[in-house]
Amino acid sequence: MFFRLLPVVVGLLAANAHAAGNIETGRAVFDKKCASCHKIGPAARGTFGPHLNAIVGRQAGATTDYRYSEAMKTSKVVWTPETLRAFIHAPNKVVPGNKMRFWGIGDEGEITDLLAFLQTVR
């Protein structure tokens, strides 16, 4: 019986580890795909895109140092891991008419890792 359940348990553990994401890999994804427009850290300010400090739990279009599109300001989106995942995957499907010039990330593993990293950014 044990040997029958072992593959199931191993599979569940692997899936759970992937669901949590890898923070270091997420940092690399951020550096490669986000950092040219979005800043993080104590001195971060909105430049070409809004800063992403404490993005999880924040209302979309809420920072005062960036000029958001009307679509983003009126979207009523709150950035949860789920809404961020959807937005990172397809920005214009979540907030049609936003001004982010990014096609999205199609790799769910990269998104999971990026979200793990973004949740550490205060």
TrEMBL record:
Segments forming domain Cytochrome c: 21-122
Keyword Heme in record: yes
Position of the signal peptide: 1-19
InterPro entries on file: Cyt_c-like_dom, Cyt_c-like_dom_sf, Cyt_c_1A/1B
Keywords: Electron transport, Heme, Iron, Metal-binding, Signal, Transport
Gene3D superfamilies with a match to the protein in the record: Cytochrome c-like domain
Record carries keyword Acetylation: no
Molecular function terms from GO: electron transfer activity; heme binding; metal ion binding
Protein name (database record): Cytochrome c family protein
